[in-house]
Amino acid sequence: MVEFKQKEQYNFDDLLRIMELLRAPGGCPWDREQNHHSIRRNFIEETYEVCEAIDDEDTEHLKEELGDVLLQVVFHTEIEREQGSFDIDDVCDGICKKLIFRHPHIFSDTQADTAAEVLRNWEQLKQVEKNQQTATDTLQSVARSLPGLIRAEKLQKKAAKVGFDWDEVSGAMEKVDEELDELRRAMHGDGDPEEEFGDLLFAAVNVSRFLKIDPEHAMEKACNKFTARFAAMEQRAEQEGKALSDLSLTELDELWNTIKKV
Q1: 3-class state of residue 138 by DSSP
Q2: For residue 196, which phi and psi values (nearest 5 degrees)?
Q3: What is the Cβ-side half-sphere exposure of residue 102, based on CA atoms within 13 angstroms?
Q4: Where are the alpha helices (DSSP H) in the chain?
Q5: pLDDT value at position 111?
Q6: CA within 20 to 30 Å of 80's CA: 1, 25, 109, 182, which one?
Q7: CB distance 205 to 215 below 8 Å
Q8: What does the alpha-carbon distance between residue 36 and residue 107 come to, in Å, rounded to a whole number?
């Protein structure tokens, strides 16, 4: 039994203390075994659950999931505190200094009256802060661990800032057609299908950028639509006393097309 006072309402300091106790000798065996790599995926999953709560406009769920993300921050920080690298105060110090540096229109005498001006200043200051001296530096600064569609969009936006872009969406659409043809050829032995499929997706993201469509959000909506139509298709089959697995591909296609028209 650890020495810890339970109370009606806890605060951030309590969270830090709880994590310290969980990781201490005699603490939780599972928590003590973890390292940055073993809980890396947890951080990603918790972040997406926050996004889901935002999309659902569920305040209570959002509060809970933000707590889960905060736990991940504290967990990773505690691992480093034990090694003597940094603690939560160092983390807070770093982000405070970054915010002050990147908001000179608030904390200094720089002028920025619109959101566009703020973003322009932010990007310029970020390049100075991270010593990004070339356009390639800015591309390499985009996290490789981002979801593919988001990373592609960010890379394309940064390349566009130095003029490497089409004048209009028609050029991006022609590139999609070109990449689709190359994928077809690769499927018949002329090229690497995986590489060409990646090029096709990258080209499609360029189109979404011109149309001011968030590619990740568009893919999410497509997945949701597919799931809803599939559920409706299964329900229609059950009403007819059939299981989807009993239907031929032709019958499934006919049923799918019927659902699409609803």
Answers
A1: helix
A2: -70, -35
A3: 18
A4: 12-23, 29-33, 40-56, 59-83, 88-102, 104-107, 115-129, 135-140, 148-160, 169-187, 193-210, 215-239, 249-260
A5: 86
A6: 1
A7: yes
A8: 35
